[in-house]
Amino acid sequence: MYRLCIFDLDGTLLNTVYALTYVTNLTLDAFGLRHVTPEETKRIVGNGYRMQMKRALVLAGDEKLVHYEASLPIYMENFSKYCLKDVEPYDGIRELLASLKEMGVHVAVLSNKPHEQAIVNIETFFGKGYFDVVRGEQAGTPKKPAPDGAFAICRELGIKQEECLYLGDTNTDMETGLNAGMDTVGVLWGFRDREELEGCHPQYIVAHPSEVAEIVKKKNESHGRME
C-alpha cells in the first residue's frame, strides 16, 4: 500500500527550466561567457546548484573552472531574486495532488534546490501547508541520490519506506528512490528522456500525472482486497 508520495520539484512538479536558465545566464554574464540554452539547462541540473554551475561553466568555455568559486555567490544572489521567473506547474499536477489527498495519501517534496527557494516555489504555487513535508538542500544532509532526505521525510511522517512512492524526472531521482528502497516513478514531462529513466529500472514510467493516480489507486485497492 502507498501511504506517501515523495515528489522531486524541478521537472516533476514545476517547470523551472526558464528560471534556472535565466539565473545561470545572469551568472555567466558576470564573466563574459556565452549563455546556455533551456535544452542545455535540462541536462545540467539535478545535482544541486554547485554541480549545475560547474557544468554550465564548462559548456560556456571555462573548462578549467577558473570562475567556479566566484560564480557560486553570484548564482545564489541571482537565484534569490529570480527563482520564480516563468515558473509554472505542469499540466495535471494539481489534479494529481488533489486525487492523492482524496485517497488519504500523504504528499511531500524532496529537492536538491536550496531549501529556502524550494519552500518559496512550493508555497507560491500550492499554498503554505499543502504538502506534508518540503525538504530542499540542507546542511548536514547529503544531496540526492543519497537517500537521507527521503528517510527523514518517512521518519517525520511515521511511514515505512516500502509504503512510499518516489517520483522524479532524472536518473538522480531514480537512484534516490532505489537507494531508499522505495518504488520509483519516472516522469516523462520533465527534463530528461525515457532512455535515461529506463536505464535506472524504475517500477513505473508515466507520460501524464493522471497515470500516477491510477497506479496508487490500483495498488491500494489491491492491498485492501488482500486484507
TrEMBL record:
Assigned GO CC terms: cytosol
Domain of life: Bacteria
InterPro entries xref list: HAD-like_hydrolase_sf (IPR050155), HAD-like_sf (IPR036412), HAD-SF_hydro_IA (IPR006439), HAD_2 (IPR041492), HAD_sf (IPR023214), PGP-like_dom2 (IPR023198)
Keywords noted in UniProt: Hydrolase
Pfam families (alphabetical): HAD_2
Single GO term (MF): phosphoglycolate phosphatase activity
One Gene Ontology biological process: DNA repair
Protein name: HAD family hydrolase
